[in-house]
Amino acid sequence: MNRLASATSPYLLQHADNPVDWWPWCDEAFAEAKRRDVPVLISVGYAACHWCHVMAHESFEDAAVGKLLNDGFVAIKVDREERPDVDAVYMTATQAMTGQGGWPMTVFATPDGTPFFCGTYFPKPNFVRLLESVGTAWREQREAVLRQGSAVVEAIGGAQAVGGPTAPLTAELLDDAAAQLAREYDRSNGGFGGAPKFPPHMNLLFLLRHHQRTGSAESLEIARHTAEAMARGGINDQLAGGFARYSVDGHWTVPHFEKMLYDNALLLRVYTQLWRLTGDPLAARVARDVARFLADELHRPGEGFASALDADTEGVEGLTYAWTPAQLVEVLGPEDGRWAADLFGVTESGTFEHGMSVLRLARDVDDADPAVRGRWQDVVRRLLAARDNRPQPARDDKVVAAWNGLAITAIAEFVRLVEAQGAAGGDEAAANLLEGVAIVADGAMRDAAEHLATVHLVDGRLRRVSRDGVVGAPAGVLEDYGCVAEAFCAMHQVTGEGRWLELAGGLLDTALARFVAPGGGFYDTADDAEQLVTRPADPTDNATPSGRSAIVAALVAYAALTGENRYREAAEAALATVAPIVARHARFTGYAATVGEALLSGPYEIAVVTDDLAGDPLVAAAYRHAPPGAVVVAGRPDQPGVPLLADRPLVDGRPAAYVCRGFVCQRPVTTVEDLRAQL
User: Which residues have C-beta within 8 Å of that of residue 568, sequence separation ≥ 6?
Assistant: First the structure.
């Protein structure tokens, strides 16, 4: 009996009609395996995963494979996005056994959950042979299987150990991390490493903050060049905005087409900060388009942001997005069609499959004259209207707490910068569009924050996911507490409302009580959470910030907003557990290094006392010129629930800015020039 029909996860629901007797992750499934004395198959994936779909079509939808599974195993299907704790434990085991990881993840375990054989995608013939071999080994070589499982658990327990060496995250160490990234930087194509190439958003955030602190031209150029290369590539949707998960090549041309909320949230922060620091019109446009993608494509009214758009459309990768020259001519006419083919790099031979091309920006048009920019935008509008009539990828519409937190923080930074920049962003039409996107994105941000506060917070504890307004059972993990607390700190700064700061403090207090580990670190699961074969505590930043980096970012922001030093001390202690990894593996500690730059900077605490939040030039100057990781709050003096505004009056009846660093304050200033000098 397949038990997935009542699941809240879209990924599990994709498998509800399989001829496999799937169980969701639950104690009852392992009890059933023990009762039958059979091994467990744990299959882990997510809804937007292309190769998960392939393995499902080849194997899990096949009746003969289903019979093999049902006769010899208890099969458990896990959504890695819903249960990142389960995914983390078995991914560590998979990497330990095979040297690599990925999804779909295929794990064979004993009835107590101990993994003894792990892999990823298996073509159907290989998978059938594997099922037969594992079944034979379980029946005839049980002792060897159990020894193998014990060795794997011992290995992954060591990999997730806490209480290791610590060191201060110093300026010298962060400078070395920036130099390490410069050595690994792809000077031709931008980014780091070869194919497949993932957007290195957290490393770019670190490099931008490193540039702010040190003035390093190299750090800024690496970030600028990489951001421009990605923006012009096929990984960026040139029509609707939003970035795909990664490029299958080394030069950003052909993407793996799934679009993830977390990538786009982190990339929105990159392009927003690049725009803030350089005034680059390309960065402003891309930030606008990503914000619009989040608000239009992923926001669910009355809820939060959906998790992803699928890699496939009707089982075909790129069906929605790829074009031929003839198709461009059909939509645009001969003259504009040929012009668009040249602009977007669409060739007769194609850059993708079957003579199709993925649109990329092959010409520099952001700085072109108004007539060219107008023609470009008209072509984009017409192509997008035609594309909207094609079959569209499915949307994984579950709301993940941590990823919504990332989106809220990113949109808060974008909206504040749009307000501060005024009419910046090119011509009047572009400025009006930018302002309109900011207004819509601001509404989506507030909607998502309210949803997290009212639906995901249950009895003071975070839940990981919700769908259709109904909260799911999985408990929040450390990254949820960190990302949501940081988002609530951002909401406090945007709105000036004390309740967001109070909510952030409650989450951080729970994290310090329930997730803390020996030596200043953190576990990824709470002390009262479900006990897995090991308790995960991964300190590295990968597709998203690690739980440890996320909680540190929130602790730093909260300490700056409240003046409560114990939260800063907890942040410094946790960062010290990551510092040895930063020294060796800068590419996998980008968010930790980003937060480290904020701590080195101060971070600055900037309070602007004013009655004119929208129009006061002091507020705009504070946002435009804030040092790395600074917190900025504006509002009336002594506003309830806003510690940064306490005991800070107007100066001679005029609005004033108070700039502090490390809880030491400079004299209040009343002019933009004086504020800029202090920053």
Answer: 555, 556, 559, 560, 599
The pLDDT tens digits of the residues spanning 397-406 come to: 999 999 999 9
Say if CB 401 and CB 420 are below 8 A apart. Answer: no
Instruction: Give yes or no for a contact between 408 and 490, defined as CB atoms under 8 angstroms apart.
Output: yes
pLDDT tens, 391-437? Answer: 999 999 999 999 999 999 999 999 999 998 874 445 677 788 889 99
Per DSSP, the three-state class of 658 is strand
Residue 158 amino acid letter: G
Q: How far apart are CA 332 and CA 327, in angstroms?
A: 9
Separation CA 235–CA 359 (nearest Å): 9
- Check: CB of residue 237 under 8 Å from CB of residue 243: yes
**Beta-carbon contacts of residue 360 (< 8 Å; ≥ 6 apart):** 232, 233, 234, 236, 238, 252, 253, 344, 345, 351
DSSP of 570-624? HHHHHHHHHHHHHHH-GGG-HHHHHHHHHHHH--EEEEEE-S-TTT-HHHHHHHH
Write the CB contacts of 378 (distance below 8 Å, at least 6 apart in sequence). Answer: none
User: What region, left, alpha or beta, does residue 133 occupy, with left being phi > 0 and alpha being psi -120 to 50 degrees?
Assistant: alpha
Kindly list the distances between the CA atom of residue 429 and the CA atoms of 272, 370, 423, in Å, as whole numbers in the listed order. 19, 10, 10
Q: How many CA atoms lie within 13 A of 657 on its CB side?
A: 28
Strand partners, 119: 106
- Give the gyration radius of the chain's Cα atoms: 25
Residue 583 burial (10 A CB sphere; 0-12, 13-18, 19+): middle
Instruction: Assess contact for 575 and 169: CB atoms under 8 A.
Output: yes
**pLDDT value of position 159:** 56
CB atoms within 10 A of CB 525: 25
Query: How far apart, in whole angstroms, are the C-alpha atoms of residue 543 and residue 216?
Result: 26
CA distance 219 to 418: 24
CA angle 320, 321, 325 (to 5 degrees): 115
| Sign of the dihedral through C-alpha 287, 289, 295, 298 | negative
Q: Which two tokens stand for residue 164?
A: 């290791």
What whole-number distance in Å separates Cα of residue 318 and Cα of residue 257? 6
Output the pTM of the full model.
0.92
